[in-house]
Amino acid sequence: MPDSGRCPWSLSTPEYIRYHDEEWGRPQHDDRVLFEFLILEGAQAGLSWRTILEKRDGYRKAFADFDPVKVARFSDDKLEKLMQEPGIVRNRLKIWSARTNARAFLDVQREFGSFDAYLWGFVAGAPLVNTVHRHGDVPARTELSDRISKDLLKRGFKFVGSTIVYAYLQAIGVVNDHLLGCPQRGV
Length: 187
What we know:
By secondary structure, this protein is an all-alpha fold. The chain has helices at 14-22, 31-44, 49-54, 56-62, 68-72, 76-82, 92-112, 115-120, 143-154, 162-171; strands at residues 128-129, 175-176.
């Protein structure tokens, strides 16, 4: 596939190209979408993002279109039934963490008015735009992801280690790691 200057990680499939061109690294402020990516990034731990993208529709169906109020109310029985759902990664800890994270997410919304206000407060509301020349220059974690991870863990969130949080920050545009020359860098 011709690269058109895109970030090299995005070139393997049409789905990756679409995700790269339309979502990844774009500042996101919708709390439902912020919750969706929080759950998806946690589900991705130890797996490829491609696996998660392929199961995204299954996740939306299984997790009430990522409505944190609904997910927070999931019963133990509902979570157990999700262990049989082929449209998602059937990992008990990851499935159960979605309810835990939904409850913590709602607590953050109550405290800050929105999860958006909480999260973007770490960067004073403006994306951090990194100068990245090669894919190999992109860090796996940073001081910022360390700080946010520590705070999320303190608030009771699960699957929010610093590496997961950094991938999350990239996905939702808090951090812009599009390579120099990538046509999506300034979008």
